[in-house]
Amino acid sequence: MRASRFFISTLKDAPSDAEIVSHQLMMRAGMIKRLGSGIYTYMPTGLRVIRKVEAIIRDEMNKAGGIELLMPLVQPAELWQETGRWEKMGPELMRVKDRHGREYAIQPTSEEVITDVVRSEIKSYRQLPLNFYHIQTKFRDERRPRFGLMRGREFTMKDAYSFDRDEASMKASYKIMYDAYTAIFNRFGLTFRAVAADNGAIGGSGSHEFHVIASTGEDAIVYCPTSDYAANMEAAEALPLAAARAAATAPLTKTATPGATKCEAVAEMLKLPLNQTVKTIALTVEKEVAGKQVLENWMLLLRGDHDLNEIKVGKVPGLAGHRFATEAEILACYGSIPGYLGPIGTKQPVTIVADRTVANMADFVCGANEEGFHYTGANWVRDLPEGLVADLRNVVEGDASPDGKGVLAIERGIEVGHVFQLGTSYSESMKATFLDENGKPAPLQMGCYGIGVTRILGAAIEQNFDDKGIIWPAAIAPFEVVLCPMGMDRSEMVKTEVESLYAALQAAGVDVIVDDRGLRPGAMFADWELIGVPHRVVIGERGLKEGNLEYQGRRDLEATAVPVAGMALFIKGKLSQ
Amino acid sequence: MRASRFFISTLKDAPSDAEIVSHQLMMRAGMIKRLGSGIYTYMPTGLRVIRKVEAIIRDEMNKAGGIELLMPLVQPAELWQETGRWEKMGPELMRVKDRHGREYAIQPTSEEVITDVVRSEIKSYRQLPLNFYHIQTKFRDERRPRFGLMRGREFTMKDAYSFDRDEASMKASYKIMYDAYTAIFNRFGLTFRAVAADNGAIGGSGSHEFHVIASTGEDAIVYCPTSDYAANMEAAEALPLAAARAAATAPLTKTATPGATKCEAVAEMLKLPLNQTVKTIALTVEKEVAGKQVLENWMLLLRGDHDLNEIKVGKVPGLAGHRFATEAEILACYGSIPGYLGPIGTKQPVTIVADRTVANMADFVCGANEEGFHYTGANWVRDLPEGLVADLRNVVEGDASPDGKGVLAIERGIEVGHVFQLGTSYSESMKATFLDENGKPAPLQMGCYGIGVTRILGAAIEQNFDDKGIIWPAAIAPFEVVLCPMGMDRSEMVKTEVESLYAALQAAGVDVIVDDRGLRPGAMFADWELIGVPHRVVIGERGLKEGNLEYQGRRDLEATAVPVAGMALFIKGKLSQ
């Protein structure tokens, strides 16, 4: 490519609405252009990166037995109604009516359509397993689009769907995709981590997220540096901090704590460590029993310095449909205003669930169900009966790893891929069956697998930038190498060498751009550092007279002189590293 | 590719709603799958063809200096309001509201967005010319989607937009695109014709359509076999059939023609040839003059056997906003009911426009403006004043070519590409200007250039099929070559040779598929003939024992024995033809 035939448009300053570095740098490097809220035109430089990302994904998906097709953007509402997602998805699902008033979804994902394709195509177990994928524009009407391509409304996603005859085979297909994803993110040249994840609303039984590691990442991910345990914060299991409960040593004492409604204030007032306090969270579950609405009171107990993990709460048997109790409900149940609640002496019966750590505490502090009072020296069995125990909290740095092989660390990540074991939730609601070995219809076992193609760009930049701009890994850089001639229009010598090196690199299959725009060196270098091309060669008369060209890697602090004749090989060597 | 790792799903019969052969064959070959009205999933075999079409387009667009970007599908209504197309496009433009009630168009084309991109990026004539393109999903809410990919609602289009400093430069950019389109359609291996076209609603000053020639084509296209004249029916110029007017020989005679309201009936009743009759078409033009609405009466005269060309009528000065006259208007103006109208003796003044051929007629028959009567022997000058003359009719086979180099022929075509000289219509309404050499702002001169990517598939099939199925040109075939082993599972000899030939062809860059599904020969051959792979090699024990493989081209009536060792080279030879 010659820069004079390409379109390069860089900016000194990022627009004020660009809050994060990847958004700022993509705008400044002229990779994207905002059209509307969360909607971007991918400019030529940005599109080149997208195409390279797509090519790597496609190659690895094909190697893993994926079969590419292309499903429509505009999808009939009827299919989405079959699975109930037409209602469930809410305003995130962009809906449109055609001239005849028929309703359609603009696809945010394609489970319904692929299941519809497969239910009409697959008759027998002999046709299985199958894995279909497509790389297609998606739309999700985010409430608050932001961060450029990181949380856009229109974006490109690769979504794959596997179909198997039984769970074991589905898990094997899932493993193949997990491995393919690992290969894909390795080829991108990004530091990433696969973590166990909660399945969330999509249903099913197992799932992993792939995160690009970046200090600016939205998500906290948990891992054990001395084992292969890794999970996202929602899914990371918290073990009890003490293996067993200590014996009670203090008497249960009602203590005045006027105005102290938070554990921190109570601990400070009583001069006790925060980790001896217990906080109470009052929940309500609405149930229908024999046609009548019944309210159940539930109470969660968490150590004062721990954070509640709502995903885990939702998994406690009986708490799937919980909500926080209202102030009126709290007054009726506990006889106290919030801030002083506790498990001892409630007015109405309450089902108590203690976090694993709380269940092993002794001599703890908790609310006394009376405004302005807490108990100190509370102990299980002696002062209150042992109740249900569950993992209710977020892990913290230094917790024991659930696999027993070390302690947990936490880092920040950006979710760029997600693999799910869907099981039969879609195939059952859409009646997608096949005939098994015995000629009996059985629902297809499904998996689904997504990669946020355009999001990769943002994540790669959040992980790889400096004060000059982006630093692309070579595999997904818009160009691998830029040739910067000094005074090409004045020097025949420079011109000849540029053309010769350009031809040699192209012949070697290197993706190279010559900057023939005639800019002065400072502006030219600044452009390419901002755009983030990983390898730069400067061709100048002074060097040429000594038989040299100047090479500088994007992360190098200084240039290296390389003999003219050896440059093409030198570059090939750099690219194969 | 191995068929066992691909997805092949063929049908004996096409669904009943598939009216044309390309739709039937694409459904039967498993290339597309209907999701909704005019909305299709591109199945793996179909997608391979689409990708090949796209790759050829991309390659030639890049060679021609086009710069690829990707514009969004969902485009803010405000941009479409700037050009007035939000209103003008009517229900074909699919509109959608987001969760905040903001309106968007789902792009049917991207003039507005690219003009918006360019107006903010282009400051100076030094940045011009520029040509941006993208290959993207489009949506057009057709009133009656039909014919599979031929007139779908969701489809893929390549649209390019050129920006120039002046008209001469714009015309040069247009010529480059015209040539690139010629190269593209040649590379597809399709018989096509570029024809001059009317610009239609898109505005501007010049345009050509690219048609794939097929007897089932929707459009009539006109060409001169002995010159390079070619135009579509709307644009093809009709010369007068006689070079000069003959002298009057018959007297003007009012003749009873009771019940004969059509030229055919009049000619039959009077025993005169149809080409001596003239038909009258009454038009009305509504105008505002000094704030008052005024109705103008216009009359078109056409020879009895000719068809009116409404596009041409709209181009007659004064007739841009015409409509057909109502019966009440006709009665008031002519004093007669329709069917007996004529240019002689109208009640109100009428502006008469004669088709070029009518202007040179003598002794003709026309209505007498009295129910049940026509004139015979009507002659210009003697019986009625010479009026305006214009080209008003469709050409017919055998008409003189407007370039004077032969006579016109007519064939059927399918429009697959269109190039337009847009001029400044979009840049003026959107205020897309640049600073010229004198530092003065001037509107950008634009061109736009479309290729219907998915439509190419339908058009290629309409041109290339037989009773067995599709016959793809090799350049866009889903696979170039299929290897059909006979009893691969039973014969080690067959298996070894299949693998060896597969490896040799792959190494030679041939897109080859091995049918390792284990079907019996009849079913296997029928599948590949239906899918339309252009080259087939059969590997069987019998042939191998004689040192031969069997080659058969998709259009060949018989197979050819080719020595085993020479097959790879033989195939390469076939593909380079």
UniProtKB/TrEMBL annotation, chains A, B:
<dbReference type="InterPro" id="IPR007214">
    <property type="entry name" value="YbaK/aa-tRNA-synth-assoc-dom"/>
</dbReference>
<dbReference type="Pfam" id="PF04073">
    <property type="entry name" value="tRNA_edit"/>
</dbReference>
<comment type="similarity">
    <text>Belongs to the class-II aminoacyl-tRNA synthetase family. ProS type 1 subfamily.</text>
</comment>
<dbReference type="GO" id="GO:0004827">
    <property type="term" value="F:proline-tRNA ligase activity"/>
</dbReference>
<dbReference type="InterPro" id="IPR023717">
    <property type="entry name" value="Pro-tRNA-Synthase_IIa_type1"/>
</dbReference>
<dbReference type="InterPro" id="IPR044140">
    <property type="entry name" value="ProRS_anticodon_short"/>
</dbReference>
<comment type="function">
    <text>Catalyzes the attachment of proline to tRNA(Pro) in a two-step reaction: proline is first activated by ATP to form Pro-AMP and then transferred to the acceptor end of tRNA(Pro). As ProRS can inadvertently accommodate and process non-cognate amino acids such as alanine and cysteine, to avoid such errors it has two additional distinct editing activities against alanine. One activity is designated as 'pretransfer' editing and involves the tRNA(Pro)-independent hydrolysis of activated Ala-AMP.</text>
</comment>
<dbReference type="InterPro" id="IPR004154">
    <property type="entry name" value="Anticodon-bd"/>
</dbReference>
<comment type="subunit">
    <text>Homodimer.</text>
</comment>
<dbReference type="InterPro" id="IPR002316">
    <property type="entry name" value="Pro-tRNA-ligase_IIa"/>
</dbReference>
<feature type="domain" description="Aminoacyl-transfer RNA synthetases class-II family profile">
    <location>
        <begin position="33"/>
        <end position="473"/>
    </location>
</feature>
<dbReference type="Pfam" id="PF00587">
    <property type="entry name" value="tRNA-synt_2b"/>
</dbReference>
<dbReference type="InterPro" id="IPR006195">
    <property type="entry name" value="aa-tRNA-synth_II"/>
</dbReference>
<keyword id="KW-0963">Cytoplasm</keyword>
<protein>
    <recommendedName>
        <fullName>Proline--tRNA ligase</fullName>
        <ecNumber>6.1.1.15</ecNumber>
    </recommendedName>
</protein>
<dbReference type="InterPro" id="IPR036621">
    <property type="entry name" value="Anticodon-bd_dom_sf"/>
</dbReference>
<keyword id="KW-0436">Ligase</keyword>
<dbReference type="Pfam" id="PF03129">
    <property type="entry name" value="HGTP_anticodon"/>
</dbReference>
<keyword id="KW-0648">Protein biosynthesis</keyword>
<keyword id="KW-0067">ATP-binding</keyword>
<dbReference type="InterPro" id="IPR033730">
    <property type="entry name" value="ProRS_core_prok"/>
</dbReference>
<dbReference type="InterPro" id="IPR004500">
    <property type="entry name" value="Pro-tRNA-synth_IIa_bac-type"/>
</dbReference>
<dbReference type="InterPro" id="IPR002314">
    <property type="entry name" value="aa-tRNA-synt_IIb"/>
</dbReference>
<keyword id="KW-0030">Aminoacyl-tRNA synthetase</keyword>
<keyword id="KW-0547">Nucleotide-binding</keyword>
<dbReference type="InterPro" id="IPR045864">
    <property type="entry name" value="aa-tRNA-synth_II/BPL/LPL"/>
</dbReference>
<dbReference type="InterPro" id="IPR036754">
    <property type="entry name" value="YbaK/aa-tRNA-synt-asso_dom_sf"/>
</dbReference>
<dbReference type="InterPro" id="IPR050062">
    <property type="entry name" value="Pro-tRNA_synthetase"/>
</dbReference>
